[in-house]
Structure formats: C-alpha cells, structure tokens
Predict the structure of Acyl-coenzyme A oxidase.
Amino acid sequence: MVPPVEGGDAALLPEFPRGPLDAYRARASFSWKELALFTEGEDMLRFKKTIFSALEKDPLFARSPGADLSLEKYRELNFLRCKRIFEYDFLSVEDMFKSPLKVPALIQCLGMYDSSLAVKYLLHSLVFGSAVYSSGSERHLTYIPKIFSMEAYLCHTRTEMFANYNQPFSLVQEFIIHSPDFEAAKFWVGNMGKTATHAVVFAKLHVPGDQCHGLHPFIVQIRDPKTLLPMPGVMVGDMGKKLGQNGLDNGFAMFHKVRVPRQSLLNRMGDVTPEGTYVSPFKDVRQRFGVSLGGLSSGRVSILSLAVVNLKLAMAIALRFSATRRQFGPTEEEEIAVLEYPMQQCRLLPYLAAAYALDHFSKSLFLDLVEFQRGLASGDRSARQAELGREIHALASASKPLASWTAQQGIQECREACGGHGYLAMNRLGVLRDDNDPNCTYEGDNNVLLQQTSNYLLGLLAPRVQDGACFRSPLKSVDFLDAYPSILDQKFEVSSVADCLDSAVALAAYKWLVCYLLRETYQKLNQEKRSGSSDFEARNNCQVSHGRPLALAFLELTVVQRFHEHVHQPCVPPSLRAVLGRLSALYALWSLSRHAALLYRGGYFSGEQAGEVLENAVLALCSQVKRCSLPLVRLIAPPDFVLDSPIGRATGELYKNLWGAVLQESKVLERASWWPEFSVNKPVIGSLKSKL
Amino acid sequence: MVPPVEGGDAALLPEFPRGPLDAYRARASFSWKELALFTEGEDMLRFKKTIFSALEKDPLFARSPGADLSLEKYRELNFLRCKRIFEYDFLSVEDMFKSPLKVPALIQCLGMYDSSLAVKYLLHSLVFGSAVYSSGSERHLTYIPKIFSMEAYLCHTRTEMFANYNQPFSLVQEFIIHSPDFEAAKFWVGNMGKTATHAVVFAKLHVPGDQCHGLHPFIVQIRDPKTLLPMPGVMVGDMGKKLGQNGLDNGFAMFHKVRVPRQSLLNRMGDVTPEGTYVSPFKDVRQRFGVSLGGLSSGRVSILSLAVVNLKLAMAIALRFSATRRQFGPTEEEEIAVLEYPMQQCRLLPYLAAAYALDHFSKSLFLDLVEFQRGLASGDRSARQAELGREIHALASASKPLASWTAQQGIQECREACGGHGYLAMNRLGVLRDDNDPNCTYEGDNNVLLQQTSNYLLGLLAPRVQDGACFRSPLKSVDFLDAYPSILDQKFEVSSVADCLDSAVALAAYKWLVCYLLRETYQKLNQEKRSGSSDFEARNNCQVSHGRPLALAFLELTVVQRFHEHVHQPCVPPSLRAVLGRLSALYALWSLSRHAALLYRGGYFSGEQAGEVLENAVLALCSQVKRCSLPLVRLIAPPDFVLDSPIGRATGELYKNLWGAVLQESKVLERASWWPEFSVNKPVIGSLKSKL
C-alpha cells in the first residue's frame, strides 16, 4: 500500500482549480493522487515539480503567445535556455546513478516545455556524453566536464567520410578526415548548424598497409569556441528552416583533409597503436557487433520517451477541450460536451491508453539500457552482454517507430478532434505535431528500423528450425516463441464482450499473431531465395507484407505484456486496479484490432462474432475510460504554463481562456497596416489580360 | 483517337529537361503527351499554361526561398496577389459558362502556387458569388461586379446570431442583427480577419408576431471600404497565427444590434414582405431542404479539388526524389534508387493512383454540381432537382473527408519517405501538409459530415424495407443497392493474382461491402431504438462502427466506379489503356484492402488465400505502376517554379538542386549573430541550484 499523502504534500499534488470540469472529475472511481504516487513515487513527483517551478519562475522561459519568432532569435533563445539548464543542474551525476529514471524524466520535462530544448540538451550532454562514455576510454573523459561547462559544444554524426592514417603515421600520429564530395557531406547533424565546436564523426578507418576497418568514431574540433568561426578545412553551415524543432540548429559539414591527433579516435571498439597497427579487444566479430548495436539504442530509447511526451501533451489538450466544448444534443436546447459522443471517445481515448502503456514501456526499456551500459562500463565481454545488446537493439529499433507513429497519428487526431481551435497555432497541437514528426525519421527511418527487428526474430527462428535451438533472450521478450507450434494451433474462443475486457485476451491473440507472422515471413523468405532472389532482394520483397507487420506486432506484444504485468502486480492498490486494468485492456485490444484482417486470414478469428466482440469491447472500454479521463489527464499534463494551450487549461473555462488569449495577441482588432492598398488602386478587371 | 500534337504544340507540352531521371522516363510504355491530351484536352492544357506563365513572369509572385515572412507581410502579399488575379481575369464569365471545368482548374492552379491564395480568391469570388447567385435574387446581382472590382470584399459565415425584425417593421423595413454573447461569436471566418467589408451572415430569422423561421442568409456590411475600419456595432478581429494557410486572414465577429435594410436578406429560400410577413416559394419543406442542401455542396466540392492538388504536389516531390535518391544496394558499391524498394513503392504509388482517381472524381462531381446549380438558377422546383440536391449533398459530404484524409495521409507518407529532406521547410511538404489540414475541418468536420452520407443511405433503405420502394437517384450512385439481397449472397471467387489486377474485382467487392454495411447499420440502429435509445443516441451509438465505414465505403465505391468507367471508355487510346487500367486497379484494390477485416467478418472473404491474393495484387500493381511513375508525375506536376521544391525539380539533379538551395539561404555559412553569448559567460554548473 502506498502511504496516504501527508499534509505537507498538498503543494506537491495540489487540488484541481474549480471550474466546468468538476463534474467530470467527480465521476472518477479512484483518487488521482494515489495513482500519481503509485505511478511516479513521491521523489519523482518532487523532482518534476522542481523543474517545472524553476522554468515558470525564470523570465528566460517566459512564454510569448502569438510572437512571430525569427529563426535566428528562436535559436538564440534556445541556446540560452540550454545553458541555463546547466546552471540549474537539476540532476547531479550522483543522482543520475542513484535514480537513473530521472534522466528520461528530465528530458521529458524539458520536452514538455519545448522539444527543441530537450533535443538540444540531449544531443549535447547525453548523446555525446554517452558516446564518449561507451565508445571512448580514460583519455576521453576529460571531455565530460567541458560538455557541462559548455567549453565544448557537441554534435554527433555518422557519415561516409574517410579517416586515413597520415603517412608516416608513427611520426605524426595523426588521422586525416576527408569528405570526398558533396554527396558525402553529412546533412542534418543536430547542434552543428550554429553552435557545435566539436563533433563525434564516424568515418571509415584506414590504417597503413591494411584494409578498411569500417566506421569508427573520432572527436573532431569544427569551430573555435572563442569566435565560433570554423576551423581550417571545415565547411560547416546551417540547414535552414525545418518543419519543426526550429530552436535546434541542424547543420552540415564537409572536411577537407582535416588533421586530428591519434587520440581523437574513440577507441573502445578498436584502436590504432602509435605504430599504426589496428587492434580490437573483441575477438568475436558477432560479439563486437552486438555490443556496438546496444550503443545505437540510447538515441532510439530517448526518442521513444520524447514521442510519449508529445502524445501526453496532445491528449491533455484535446481531452480537456472535449470535456468543455459543447455541440448539439438530444434536444435543441440541451448541448452536450463533445466527449460524450462515442465518436469523440473512440478517436481520443485509445491514444490516452497508449500514452500510459508506452510511457511505462519507455521507462522499463530505459532501465534495460542502463543495465546494458553498466555492463559496458564494467568491461563485461560475456555472451549474455552481447545478447542483451542485440535484444535491446531489436526492441529499441521497433519502439521508436511504434511510439513516433502512435504520437504522430494521435496528435493529428487531437488536432482534428479540436476542430478549428486545434488549427490555431496558440493551442500548440501544430507545434507538437511538427516537433514530433522528425522522431519518425532521425536515428533511422521508421520503416528501415523495423527491418532490424524482423531480422532479429528471423535470426532466432533459423537455428530453431535447423538445430532445434531454444528461443531465449536476456529480457525474455522472445521466450514465448519456444511454444510456437502449439500457439499456432490456438483459436480465439471469447464469445462475449464481458469476457473480452482484459488485456490477457489481447496477449494471447498477439502471441498467436507474432508466431503466425514469423512463420509466414520465414517461409516467404525461403521461397524468395529458392526462386533465385539474392538475400538483399529476398528481404526487400518480404518486408512490406511480412517483416514490417511482424516487427510491429512483436513490439506491440512486448508493450502490452509489460504494461499488463505492471498493472496486475500484487502491489497495485486495490482502488487503482480497475482503472489501470481498463487502460491496459483498451490499449491492447485497440492495437490488436488493427490486425483483425490478419487474425481472420490466419484462422485465429473465424465467423462474424470474433470481429464484433473485439470491436464492441473497444467501444465499451472507451466509454468506461471516458469516465476516468480527466483525472487520468491530470497525471500526464504538466502545469498550464508548461502545457501552454488556452484550450487545454486545467480550469476548463474554454471560451474565457480562448477569448482572453485571442484578444491578447498583438494587432488583433487593428486594421491591417496595408489598408491603403485596399481602398486605392482598385483592380481593373482584365487590365493585365493583354500580358497573357 | 486523339490527333497527334502539331509542331506548334512543342511549347504546350515541352520535353523533359535531360537528366538523371531519363532512364526512368524511358521505361514508360506510353506517351505522356498522349495521356495529357486525353486527360485534359488541348484547350485546358493551354489554359493552365497561361496561368502558370503569367505567375512566373510577374515579380509579385516571385518565390522567396527561406524567407521568414511575418504574418502581416504574408497576408499583405496574399491580398495583393489575389487582387492581381482579378487584373489578369484568366477566366471571363462567358468562358466560365462555356467550360465550367475551368473554374476548378483555375482554383487548382492557384492552389498549386499557394493554398492561401486559392482559398482567399475562392472565398471572395466563388463562394460569395455562388451564395448571392443561388440564395439571392435580382436585387442582389449588383454585388457581383463589386466583388470583381473589390469594392466589396467578402466573407461568409454560418452562426448562432439572431436577425430580428425591427419593430415596427413596415415603417423602417430593417432587420437587427445581434450576437447574444461571446459564445455566439463566429470564429474562423475566412477573409474576415483583415479584409472583408461585407459578410454573408446566416442568422435565425424572426418576423413580427411569428415564430423563428430558422437560419437565413443576410448581406451585412462590416467594414468601411475606404478606411477598413469596422462599422458601428461590429467588433471584428483576426484569429492570429494558424498551423497553415497563413496568407488567409481568418477572423471573428460579434454584432451589437446592427441594423440592415430588408433587402439584405438573400431571399431565394424565403423572404419577408414590406409588411413583415414571411413567405417562401417552397411549399414542401422536404424540397426546400433538398435544394438548400445542394447549396452547401459547392464549398465541399471545392475543398475536394484543393485536397487533390495538395496530394498531386506531394506525389510529384516524393516520386522525383525517390527516383534520384540512392541508398544501399545489392552490393557495397552499387547503390539503388529508393524507388526500387518495394517498401517505398507501396508507401507512395497507391497515393499516386489515388491522385488520379480522385482528380477524375472531383471533376465529375463538379459537373454534377453545375447541373444542379443551373436547375436552381432556372427556377427548377421539380422533385428530381430536390433529389439531385440530396444526392450531391451525400456525395460531397463524404468526398471532402475521403479526399482531405487521403491527402493528409499521403503527404505525411511523402514527408517521411523523403527522410530528413522532406523535413526541410524549403522542400514544401510541410507547407502542403499544413495547408491541407484544415480541409479536414472547415465546411464541416470530416466525421460529422460522414454522418450526412450514412443518413442519406439509411433514409433510402427504410422505404425499401417497409414499402418495397426502389433505390433510384438522379446520378445513379445508389441504383445498384436495388439488388442488395442477391449482392449479399456473393463471395470473393478470385484465386490468382493475375485475375485480380482489375478494378472490376474491387467494384464487385465494394458493392458487397456497402450492402453489408448498410444492412448492418440499419439493424444496429433498429436494435438500439428497440432497446430504448432516442433517435439521437441511437445514431451516435451506430456511427463509429457502422455509419462511418458505410459512408466511406460508399464514396470509395463511387470514386472507383467513375474512374473505372472513365478508363474503360471506348474512346481511350489503345496505348493508354494499360497504364490507366493499372492506376484504376491499384487505387481500387489498395483502398479495398483497408476493409479486409470487414470482408472476412461478413463472409465475403474466407480462407487464407483471399487476403493473400488481394495483398499480392496491390504489390504487383505497385511494381507495374512504378515503371510508369515518372511520366505519370509529369502530368500532375506543375512547372518547377510553381512546385517550388528543390528535391522535386524536373531535372532530377538532386544534390545539385538541394545544395544550391541550401547555400542560397541567407546566413547559412555565417556564424550566429549571438556568438559572443557562446564564448563569454560560460555557465557555472549548479550556480542557480540555490534558487530551486
């Protein structure tokens, strides 16, 4: 049991402001405070509150509603805010090790304020920090304090450049970094556009008298920190305006024979001796690969968590709007809140459940990653560590697509569900959509990444089929596959909606679905190969109809499984079991329902009833979750200042808030500055016709 | 047979610029010129070329890549451009009557240049013009020339205001327009924010000693055209920044007892005599309703056409990019164009087919609307005219959702398929997405509109079930339903992919699907009512799972049917039959495949093979259409100046175009203006910790 909140915690979990939303809030069957303490814990709630309060009190973070910020100004502001975050030092290195979940929590809090800030901070400190930490060695640790004091401002790039030994290497002990042509220039590097002084550059490593050793990371200075002018041989510039995240300066760089000292090589995976000989501590290529895959995961896990933030914010805005906006009704006189319409419920509430399920998953996957990185730091070269790297890679590669797409679709649904008001820039749904969008692309295009996950699963099936090997992985995400022949014999047996309102129903169906897709993909792949396709062609031809749905279904199953276990733990307070169970069931069944055609096709579903039961269960759960939706939003919504959306304010005074915000914008009631254009020089119809 | 293009037409249909796309273009099995002449006709091609050339030559329309336009500046520019369009007078009133399709063609050309321009022009001239034309009478025609000379600049609003007779009416002959409170203010009216001088205001009409006669349209002056200052009693302002279409000024207005003369009432549907008596030429309320429904359709049909434009532009950009962007390949050395990946094909090519099918549908529905409006103008009060109004209303109400969502999803897919380059603002995919987005919302939220269509179909089934009435409609879109009992007995019989590559297969399946959904919806609705739900509740409870898919499936069927008939006409040149047939089959089957779960659930599909055949047919058609995709793009893409996307240029010189555009932006290689912030005042870690 979670202890009741003491009197002193009224400030930690303040009551709702009174207002039109009271009626909705009163309907909930549980105490949102209890849920907050169960989900987050007091220490975490306090940590988030500290961050939000600091931002709210600091004029540098003041919101400027309706301001038309120029690109240059926005980038400056974001840079200054990033710097200020270091001054606050919300999370010391000791705290980070003690409570690792505070790392994504900090990023999420910054992301709730502004994605650009979160990403800029993340790229500079954590991605770079973790690159140095996981790929470098003792000699590179000197960079860590420089990051935090911003003596070195960093970015991180993976590219087609070459790092050649500088002949005679043993004398000068330098590499030469060189981009052969424009097409090899690296676009899109975050922080590179205007601010980075150093870059982690991945380049193909060539050493004397030896073949290429593939991509290795180097630290290369690209700008003079005193002047921010580029270093000799470096052409570095800004990509210009993007669809979103414009506080972040993405850049491009070309290197013309830039010399860097031998020690610039981040040498954990492989090093070059002063004499120019390549050495690697990993004898087993497969192990080395597994370990380096794990390193790729940290960016993807961070993106997963940022996508969840965007979804949470959008849900908070759209659900508060829907509970206060009234339209039509059973009679001419009585208008009802749009949230009362089953259509509005089914558009929004599955995404609320998704926000909860994916949030839980993102935390649990982050903890898995921490375990992996600790192994890395302690020099663990066991097979288990390598397997853990592969499994996390497979999970992270599919979780970024799932979360970024869910957020993208959810935000779009929120935008539309708020009608015209969702299209008003000040209400923030557009910013959320635009800032979330690159989550689908960076750190690997979603569709390309899914192939990593399907390849992982196919790679496990082959030894099973050929040698009877077991399915076993460190995190047990694939262990169920061991029973695949018997799972494939199962059928959907639920015949009433009442029996379907549980995530266990979806879990069973998902297990069947993953086994089915895995078998189908494997067969299709072999059939392609038998008919003469190369491995490359065969995989490409299987991906659309087989590999992609396999990877997504596997990841959805893992998310559902982890959330199901979480909400069914014995430590869940009895009063919270119902609401958490419904969230888990809604996410699971809604998500499953999008695969209904495959369930029928493979024979797991048959007859009209199966599809109907599933559909009706989702509808019923939407209606049940609706009754708790406002308190559920209370947990995921940051304070109004951070949420920054007039239609999403906690008071629910929709028209007051909206009119207040509209009228506060500059020049709203003024006539256009160009009004004389209107009254003079009336167009003479067809006066330019002769010019056609 | 279409005659070959004469020598003089080289300018009308110029050859492609030579470049990396040549290889792709050479693979096509048909002449794109022949397709252009067949699809558009020479006169239309010439008309579009005239418009594009005029814009390209006129400095007012010069593109300003990378410019950070302020809201105020963008609105001024858009206003001036709109004015200039009148000066060009591309389409005289006579031409409009002779070739009605030039009306949507003009709007499409403007929309290809900039959505804000198309919408501003459309709202001012056509929507207002058609309101006056279809709702007003002789006495209102004086407004028409004022529109074109911009003496009156117009907007159009539907609202909760009241129009009360001014007692004693017979003396002053005035109405009083009044908004009771803030909540009754009308938000979002296009052109109202800064420019409108007159508004068509829908208000509830009250006349002396009589009850309310419902919404009627009035022309109300809201600003002084000389000064652009608001008229007494009118509070009018600008909504502020939106997610897109920021060249258009959306506004809000409140009226405080504003007096307007009796003649301001647009009196075709109903009038008030000088003595204050309400009179209507329509005796039958159902007929009057049918006619007024038809009037609602013109906005929706225009939006359909604008959504198609956005989809076309996005396809042009993404497909040219995909044909030139190379990534990975069968060997380390050989990189292949991303369009060669089945994944990329399946992401994009169904939307290319959709652009063609929906484009054809939008033209044909526009012609239906012209027929209806001609009836209206000639005073046709027949039952057929009213039925035509209802049918067009049902088609338009579902076609706006289908087209706007297809465009929204297609553009997002294009954005993602172009990776980071799709996220660069200059490549225009973001603008297209943002400008298309309101198409899902204005003139009725998509989900709400679909209920109009499902209600129309349910309204036809009831008399059939009860009295054995026939399904008959003026445009024959529902006539097939007459055979619904036998259609429902049909099954999917196609067992090979080769037999499935035809839109006829999809047509048969769609007919079954619509019959199935109609029956299910009807039964569900009756079941709801029997269990005690009110009509309002019953309809809401059926909409998500039944009414919505019914409306969409019915409209998809209509689109597929019309495009199928179009491409199978005897006049189609033999060399074009293959490519047009494939486009038709791809759109039809891809669209159908999203209903696969319902096809299984209702028993039309059974066994693994049905779903597999459908899926494999879509894949096969994608691969076939890929070979023709570049010439197909040539037809829908405007000139580079209008398309305005470096990655989408016709030359296909991807890196050259992109680098050129990036480097041309201002300050790209300059250090940030705020560089001293970087080197001075380094953050002192934790220096603000005491403030937390």
User: Anything to note?
Assistant: The domain at 450-627 of chain A is CATH 1.20.140.10 (Butyryl-CoA Dehydrogenase, subunit A; domain 3).
